[in-house]
Amino acid sequence: MLTIEGIDAGYGATTILQGVSLEVKAGEVVTIVGANGAGKSTTLRTIAGLITPTAGRISFEGQDITRTAAHEVVDLGITLIPEGRQLFPDMTVRENLLMGAYRKAARAAQAETLEEVLQLFPRVRERMNQQASSLSGGEQQMVAIARGMMARPKLLMFDEPSLGLAPIIVSQVFEVIGKIAATGTTVLIVEQNVFSTLKASDRGYVLENGEIALSGAAEALLRDDHVRQAYLGI
Amino acid sequence: MNIFLQLVANGLMLGGLFAIISIGLTLIFGIVKVVNFAHGEFLMAGMYLTWIITVGLGLHPYVTVLAVAPFLFVLGAMTQRFLIQPLLLARDDHVQIFATVGLSTALINLALLIFGADIANTPASGLRAPVQIGPVRILEGQVYIFIAAVLLVIGLQLFLSRTQTGRAIRAVAQNRAAAQLMGINVDRIYVLSFGIGAACVGLAASLVAPLYPVSSTIGTYFVLTAFVVVVLGGLGSIVGAFVGAMIIGLIDSMAGFYIGSDLREAVVFGVFLVILILKPSGLFGTRVSLSHIS
Ligand SMILES: Nc1ncnc2c1ncn2[C@@H]1O[C@H](COP(=O)(O)OP(=O)(O)O)[C@@H](O)[C@H]1O
Ligand SMILES: [Mg+2]
Question: Where is the ABC transporter domain (chain A) (predicted)?
Fold first, then answer.
């Protein structure tokens, strides 16, 4: 579904990713594991079109999207739920969700999608007319996920969805991601809870200093000595 | 008492004038985050166009808004697309300041070249006639400007809150990267917003032209007050600009009478500085990051 071949990418003159290749197949849950600053967010932003790679190639469902602008990537069925939620603070929850369905195809199905999404987030339904900035961190994360789903993506990317949340909320977030994956949506996820995420994933990549150091089936990575030492603290 | 009421009426009318000139400026700043130093010259261009059409075709000055607002929309949109947008890549905000200052100077010189140094009087069409409202007398044209300013504020609020495009504009103003992730073409929203902001000053131009003679420097005359109003109201806040304009209008009117017309400007700027010291984000600016459109 998504194929990345040898991309270099970064910010201005600074190259962060060096020759990164990875693949996500339809229906899979794939995780990228790596230390702080390894380039995980940069990878997701590059796929989303916010950063244009300086080398290599990205394709989605056979179509070259290496240089496709972020707003057009959304049309193809790729949505990124960014690190730090990034809601529109002075808009209501409802308005935030409607922005998720901004593109034409999603807008046509807006009402149905909203109903489906709210089934998954009863708490969000209660908050529909509140300003996004007035919600708690956990609620904001739920709105961010719900907003991402409003685009009806084929590939949904999560960047640190549990960052800064209380443990009980973290387990709710994981539950929701599990449900999304169960509906057949393909998931690419970056998470600090490496163990839980690998448990819930089919495959994983280990990113170190902007390069893929290791990849494989999630169970294999869970058993790998290097992964256990460096990321699971075992 | 009657004098006081007359001063209040004068202040509100002046406020309406300041408001209608300032709204486009605050809109552009709030969304595109660019201070358009050519805003006054946009007004000047609109007033010249109003004058040309009114004199040339013998139309009522208000009718010209049908041409002036679209003309300014295009001028604003082109400014964003061909001047500001290429400079965004420069990643240095100062370059944009110089660019709009340069545009301002270029437009003034262009006006001098085309129209010379003389002032041009748009026919008043009865708009300079005083009307008696209760105990106060104001100019008919001032009343229309005030009403237009109120309607513009309401209209923009409805547009920004009720339409998909309006919400997209607010989304871009509040979080540019997140807006891109929603599939919003941010560059296009910027061009559109600059155009709308400029069209607002086009509306102002057609309304102001019958009351004030236009010259190449008219923009400089008005725009300083517009900047005061916009900063006072909270950069980017439309309602704030309206309220700020009323405050400045009232102070201007009162100070002119009670303190002396020579000191009017000194008092206006004095109050402005005091408010800024007490509340640096302006009356309606909720955050200094200016991410907010209300
Ligand atoms: N906007 C930016 N501008 C410049 N450098 C950045 C920016 N964002 C991240 N970086 C740098 O890129 C590197 C990788 O960051 P990131 O992809 O966010 O890592 P991760 O998500 O794995 O923690 C870090 O060294 C970081 O400092
Ligand atoms: Mg990150």
Answer: 2-234
Residue B294 pLDDT grade (very low, low, confident, very high; cuts 50, 70, 90): very low
CATH of A1-76+190-233, one of 3.40.50.300, 3.40.50.410, 3.40.50.2000, 3.90.1150.10: 3.40.50.300
Q: Indicate the domain borders of chain B.
A: 19-224
Which residues from chain A sit within 8 angstroms of residue B164, using beta carbons? Answer: 98, 102, 107
B167 contacts in chain A (CB < 8 Å): 91, 95, 98-99
- The domain ranges of chain A are 1-76+190-233
Q: Are A16 and A42 in contact (CB under 8 A)?
A: yes
Chain B partners within 8 Å of A103 (Cβ):
182-183
Supply the ipTM of this predicted assembly.
Answer: 0.92
Please return the burial class of A171, using the count of CB atoms within 10 Å of its CB with bins 0-12, 13-18 and 19+.
middle
> Which residues does residue A32 pair with via DSSP β-bridges, in sequence order?
A190, A205
Inter-chain residue contact B183 with A103, CB threshold 8 Å: yes
- Express as a percent the part of chain A with pLDDT over 70: 100
Distance CA B13, CA B23 (A): 16
Residue to mutate among A11, A78, A102, with most B CBs inside 10 A, is: A102
Q: Any idea which of A84-88, B87-91, B219-223 has the lowest mean pLDDT?
A: B87-91
The CB of A4 under 6 Å from ligand 1? The reply is no
B220 touches A at CB < 8 Å = no
Chain-chain contact of A69 with B185 (C-beta, under 8 angstroms): yes
Provide the phi-psi class of B140: left if phi over 0, else alpha when psi is between -120 and 50, else beta. alpha
DSSP per position, A39-75: SHHHHHHHHHTSS--SEEEEEETTEE-TT--HHHHHH
Instruction: For A49-107, write each residue's pLDDT tens digit.
Output: 999 999 999 999 999 999 999 999 999 999 999 999 999 999 999 999 999 999 988 89
